[in-house]
Amino acid sequence: EISIRRDDGSHCDTGEIGNIHVTGQLGFRGYFRNDATNAKVLGPNGFLNGDKGYFDEDGYVFLSGRSDSVFKRSGLKVSAQVISDALMSLNGVKDAFSSSEENAMEGRVPVAYLCWDEGHSPNEADLTRALRDLIPVNHIPVRYVSLPTIPRTGSGKVDRRKLAVLIDEAAAPPASAT
Fold it and tell me: Does residue 110 contact residue 99 with C-beta atoms inside 8 Å?
Protein backbone atom coordinates (compact mmCIF):
# COMPACT_ATOMS: atom_id res chain seq x y z
CA GLU A 1 0.00 0.00 0.00
CA ILE A 2 1.29 3.44 -0.91
CA SER A 3 0.56 6.69 0.88
CA ILE A 4 1.84 10.14 0.04
CA ARG A 5 2.44 12.37 3.02
CA ARG A 6 3.72 15.77 4.02
CA ASP A 7 6.82 16.12 6.19
CA ASP A 8 4.58 16.21 9.29
CA GLY A 9 3.11 12.79 8.36
CA SER A 10 -0.33 14.05 7.29
CA HIS A 11 -1.80 12.86 3.97
CA CYS A 12 -1.23 15.03 0.91
CA ASP A 13 -4.15 16.28 -1.15
CA THR A 14 -4.70 15.05 -4.71
CA GLY A 15 -2.00 16.59 -6.93
CA GLU A 16 0.13 17.67 -3.96
CA ILE A 17 3.71 16.41 -4.06
CA GLY A 18 4.82 14.61 -0.93
CA ASN A 19 6.94 11.80 0.48
CA ILE A 20 6.07 8.29 -0.66
CA HIS A 21 5.56 5.73 2.11
CA VAL A 22 5.10 2.00 1.46
CA THR A 23 3.50 -0.56 3.78
CA GLY A 24 2.48 -4.20 3.42
CA GLN A 25 2.91 -7.71 4.74
CA LEU A 26 5.94 -8.34 2.54
CA GLY A 27 7.35 -4.88 3.15
CA PHE A 28 10.85 -3.69 3.76
CA ARG A 29 12.09 -4.49 7.28
CA GLY A 30 15.20 -2.34 7.32
CA TYR A 31 18.81 -2.05 6.30
CA PHE A 32 21.20 -4.67 7.65
CA ARG A 33 23.09 -3.38 10.70
CA ASN A 34 22.18 0.25 10.04
CA ASP A 35 20.03 1.37 12.95
CA ALA A 36 20.56 5.09 12.30
CA THR A 37 19.20 4.90 8.75
CA ASN A 38 16.40 2.56 9.80
CA ALA A 39 15.27 5.12 12.38
CA LYS A 40 14.93 7.70 9.58
CA VAL A 41 13.12 5.55 7.00
CA LEU A 42 10.93 3.19 9.05
CA GLY A 43 8.05 4.62 11.01
CA PRO A 44 4.35 4.44 11.77
CA ASN A 45 3.52 5.31 8.13
CA GLY A 46 5.70 2.52 6.69
CA PHE A 47 8.90 2.70 4.70
CA LEU A 48 9.89 6.19 3.55
CA ASN A 49 11.50 5.18 0.26
CA GLY A 50 13.08 8.52 -0.68
CA ASP A 51 10.81 9.21 -3.66
CA LYS A 52 8.55 12.22 -4.06
CA GLY A 53 5.26 11.96 -5.89
CA TYR A 54 1.54 12.61 -5.94
CA PHE A 55 -1.79 10.92 -6.61
CA ASP A 56 -3.88 12.17 -9.53
CA GLU A 57 -7.69 12.39 -9.50
CA ASP A 58 -7.97 8.74 -10.60
CA GLY A 59 -5.68 7.47 -7.83
CA TYR A 60 -2.64 6.86 -10.04
CA VAL A 61 0.78 7.58 -8.53
CA PHE A 62 3.15 9.90 -10.36
CA LEU A 63 6.80 10.17 -9.33
CA SER A 64 8.24 13.67 -9.33
CA GLY A 65 11.79 13.02 -8.16
CA ARG A 66 13.83 11.95 -5.19
CA SER A 67 13.51 13.57 -1.80
CA ASP A 68 17.13 14.66 -2.04
CA SER A 69 16.28 16.51 -5.26
CA VAL A 70 13.54 18.58 -3.60
CA PHE A 71 14.66 21.33 -1.26
CA LYS A 72 13.49 24.65 0.14
CA ARG A 73 14.77 27.99 -1.08
CA SER A 74 13.64 30.87 1.13
CA GLY A 75 10.85 28.63 2.41
CA LEU A 76 9.56 27.65 -1.05
CA LYS A 77 9.87 24.11 -2.43
CA VAL A 78 12.17 23.67 -5.41
CA SER A 79 12.50 20.55 -7.55
CA ALA A 80 15.90 20.00 -9.13
CA GLN A 81 14.19 17.68 -11.64
CA VAL A 82 11.92 20.49 -12.84
CA ILE A 83 15.01 22.66 -13.40
CA SER A 84 16.85 19.90 -15.27
CA ASP A 85 13.83 19.22 -17.48
CA ALA A 86 13.52 22.93 -18.33
CA LEU A 87 17.23 23.17 -19.13
CA MET A 88 17.01 20.12 -21.40
CA SER A 89 14.28 21.85 -23.41
CA LEU A 90 16.58 24.77 -24.29
CA ASN A 91 18.27 24.96 -27.67
CA GLY A 92 21.91 23.85 -27.56
CA VAL A 93 21.74 21.95 -24.26
CA LYS A 94 23.14 18.46 -24.76
CA ASP A 95 22.70 17.34 -21.13
CA ALA A 96 21.87 18.96 -17.81
CA PHE A 97 21.75 18.19 -14.12
CA SER A 98 20.56 20.40 -11.28
CA SER A 99 21.44 20.19 -7.63
CA SER A 100 21.55 22.53 -4.67
CA GLU A 101 24.10 24.13 -2.43
CA GLU A 102 23.90 25.92 0.90
CA ASN A 103 23.35 29.68 0.90
CA ALA A 104 23.46 31.82 4.07
CA MET A 105 20.49 34.01 3.01
CA GLU A 106 18.15 31.56 1.25
CA GLY A 107 18.95 28.14 2.69
CA ARG A 108 19.47 25.81 -0.26
CA VAL A 109 19.75 27.32 -3.75
CA PRO A 110 19.73 25.63 -7.16
CA VAL A 111 22.84 25.18 -9.27
CA ALA A 112 22.80 23.94 -12.87
CA TYR A 113 25.46 21.77 -14.52
CA LEU A 114 25.37 21.86 -18.31
CA CYS A 115 26.94 20.10 -21.24
CA TRP A 116 26.51 21.96 -24.54
CA ASP A 117 26.02 20.91 -28.14
CA GLU A 118 29.02 21.92 -30.20
CA GLY A 119 29.01 25.63 -30.95
CA HIS A 120 26.63 26.59 -28.13
CA SER A 121 27.39 28.18 -24.78
CA PRO A 122 24.99 31.00 -23.89
CA ASN A 123 25.80 33.35 -21.03
CA GLU A 124 24.06 33.23 -17.64
CA ALA A 125 21.78 36.17 -18.46
CA ASP A 126 20.47 34.40 -21.59
CA LEU A 127 19.88 31.18 -19.65
CA THR A 128 18.07 32.97 -16.84
CA ARG A 129 15.89 34.88 -19.32
CA ALA A 130 14.93 31.65 -21.12
CA LEU A 131 14.19 29.80 -17.87
CA ARG A 132 11.90 32.57 -16.57
CA ASP A 133 9.38 31.55 -19.25
CA LEU A 134 9.55 27.88 -18.19
CA ILE A 135 9.86 27.61 -14.41
CA PRO A 136 8.98 29.56 -11.25
CA VAL A 137 11.44 32.26 -10.25
CA ASN A 138 12.46 30.38 -7.08
CA HIS A 139 13.69 27.54 -9.35
CA ILE A 140 16.11 29.77 -11.31
CA PRO A 141 19.70 28.61 -10.62
CA VAL A 142 22.07 30.96 -8.84
CA ARG A 143 24.89 29.78 -11.09
CA TYR A 144 25.54 27.67 -14.16
CA VAL A 145 28.56 25.41 -14.54
CA SER A 146 29.60 24.24 -18.00
CA LEU A 147 31.10 20.75 -18.08
CA PRO A 148 32.46 18.60 -20.92
CA THR A 149 29.96 15.85 -20.01
CA ILE A 150 27.42 14.86 -17.39
CA PRO A 151 28.61 11.37 -16.36
CA ARG A 152 25.84 8.78 -16.16
CA THR A 153 25.54 5.21 -14.93
CA GLY A 154 24.41 2.33 -17.12
CA SER A 155 20.81 2.98 -16.04
CA GLY A 156 21.01 6.64 -17.10
CA LYS A 157 21.23 8.15 -13.62
CA VAL A 158 23.83 10.83 -12.96
CA ASP A 159 27.01 9.33 -11.53
CA ARG A 160 27.41 11.77 -8.65
CA ARG A 161 30.95 10.68 -7.76
CA LYS A 162 32.26 11.25 -11.27
CA LEU A 163 30.26 14.46 -11.51
CA ALA A 164 31.91 15.73 -8.30
CA VAL A 165 35.34 15.13 -9.86
CA LEU A 166 34.37 17.10 -12.98
CA ILE A 167 32.97 19.93 -10.86
CA ASP A 168 36.19 20.09 -8.84
CA GLU A 169 38.23 20.13 -12.05
CA ALA A 170 36.06 22.94 -13.49
CA ALA A 171 36.49 25.00 -10.31
CA ALA A 172 40.26 24.51 -10.07
CA PRO A 173 42.39 27.41 -11.31
CA PRO A 174 44.32 26.62 -14.48
CA ALA A 175 47.86 25.34 -13.98
CA SER A 176 50.40 28.08 -14.56
CA ALA A 177 52.95 27.63 -17.29
CA THR A 178 56.54 27.69 -16.12
Answer: yes
